TrEMBL record:
Signal peptide coordinates: 1-32
Organism: Janibacter alkaliphilus
Keywords attached to this entry: Signal
Biased composition (Low complexity): 43-70
One Pfam family it belongs to: GSDH
Domain of life: Bacteria
Protein name: Glucose/arabinose dehydrogenase
């Protein structure tokens, strides 16, 4: 852990979608993998199993537009404004123009008009496996969104044997009475399927050149497959924007290697983000301790389950990363765990000194952590205690840092500079 770390304790992804009444045709690309908790949602509350094994209870209520004003949060540099709340939120994405898509693990997607605060449930979302950490996952607008509305998202789906993560494509149509997805087409599936409900990962990222879609694929708690390149468990895959494995992927010429693998030896990479310089970063939830921020290298083996700076649950020993062990060591690791559920690289103007820095939302850590990035170097700078499990973090078009709390509170928060 960096000696520069400071922990602060309080007391207590831009032409705008027209308003929902206007006609707009949007192409959406969907993806499936989920690490979220299960349970059922009845519109009131739901009990779920979270990524770190804890139980959470969710409740949601709609609210109005942002007032632009927040209250200072003691021990942090932020003024915090509560903007909305959701049941079991998992991901959010800002659309060109500023409106917001939010996914809930139970299988609901919301389109939120940021100007008015009004939100509508999106119809036509695929059926999901809402169990354990499974459900509706990430959402991401494509690089041509302003022209054709392409969006990507992820979810857990049933299979002949067990279940798996999936990636799809659709159109988001906003004319008529409600926004809806049309023409849904699955473009990638995690292989093999597993009879379990954890470690889907299924975070999404698109490179700055707008050529490649990256998908994180967790080990599904099977561990050993992460070292077996004949499958995509415990990997990060690289596809073209239609879901086809890229021809020059690092293992493309390796006999028996699964198509698409870009890196492997991962456990549960719940954060995936490309820096402006094109470097790919991933935050990964470790076992008991050993959470990681990784610079993702083409063909890199990140060690799991042969190496980790954490331990097996129950105290079982796992060799630490060591020089010369053949594995890529994390750029930063955490022990004890913060349980990073998301990753964002800041590109706004409100926090000008933090341009290009990484932010990780902590689940069990109930925290927000800032890591300074300088090319391939990463230095943990500070961690702020937020008082709730942080599921997703995004930089808004307004320059604010937007945070989604996990099920149990489920609040959408807007963070601006205090004072």
């Amino acid at each position: 852990m960096s000696a520069a770390r400071r922990t602060h304790r309080p007391s207590s992804r831009r032409a705008r979608l027209a308003t929902l009444a206007c006609a707009a045709l949007v192409a959406v690309t969907l993806t499936a993998c989920s690490d979220g908790g299960g349970g059922t949602s009845d519109g009131g509350s739901a009990t779920s199993t979270a990524d770190d094994g804890s139980a959470t209870t969710s409740a949601s209520s709609g609210q109005g537009a942002s007032s632009g004003a927040g209250e200072p949060l003691e021990g942090t540099p932020f003024a915090v404004e509560e903007v909305d709340s959701f049941d079991e939120p998992w991901a959010m994405a800002f659309l060109p123009g500023g409106d917001l898509l939010v996914t809930e693990r139970s299988g609901t997607m919301h389109l939120r008009d940021q100007a008015s605060g009004e939100r509508a449930e999106v119809a036509g979302v695929p059926e999901v496996v809402h169990s354990g950490q499974g459900g509706l996952g990430d959402v991401l607008p494509g690089p041509t969104f302003a022209d054709d509305g392409t969006v990507y998202l992820s979810w857990a789906e049933e299979a002949e044997q067990g279940n798996r993560a999936a990636v799809g494509q659709a159109r988001l149509v906003t004319d008529g009475d409600e926004p809806r997805l049309e023409g849904l087409e699955v473009i990638w599936r995690q292989q093999p399927s597993v009879d379990g409900d954890a470690h889907y990962s299924h975070r999404l990222a698109i490179d700055p050149e707008a050529e490649h879609l990256y998908v994180s694929s967790g080990d599904r708690q099977e561990q050993d497959p992460a070292q077996d390149t004949s499958n995509t468990l415990g990997t990060i895959v690289r596809l073209d924007l239609d879901g086809v494995p890229v021809a020059d992927n690092p293992l493309a010429d390796e006999d028996g290697a699964a198509p698409g693998i870009y890196s492997y030896g991962h456990r549960n990479p719940l954060g995936l983000e490309l820096a402006p310089d094109g470097r790919l970063w991933s935050s990964e939830m470790g076992p008991e301790g050993g959470d990681e921020l990784n610079l993702v290298e083409a063909g890199g083996n990140y060690g799991w389950p042969e190496a980790s700076n954490g331990s097996d649950y129950g105290g079982g020993d796992i060799p630490d990363h060591a020089e010369g062990d053949g594995f890529v060591a994390p750029a930063v690791s955490w022990d004890p765990s913060i349980s990073p559920g998301s990753l964002m690289i800041y590109d706004g103007e409100l926090f000008a000194d933090w341009e290009g820095d990484a932010f990780l939302g902590g689940l069990s850590g109930e925290s927000l952590t800032r890591v300074a990035l300088d090319g391939a170097q990463a230095t943990e700078e500070e961690t702020w205690e937020m008082g709730e499990r942080i599921r997703a973090v995004e930089a808004g078009p307004d320059g604010a840092i937007w945070v989604l709390e996990d099920a149990g509170s489920g609040r959408l928060l807007r963070l601006t500079p205090a004072g």
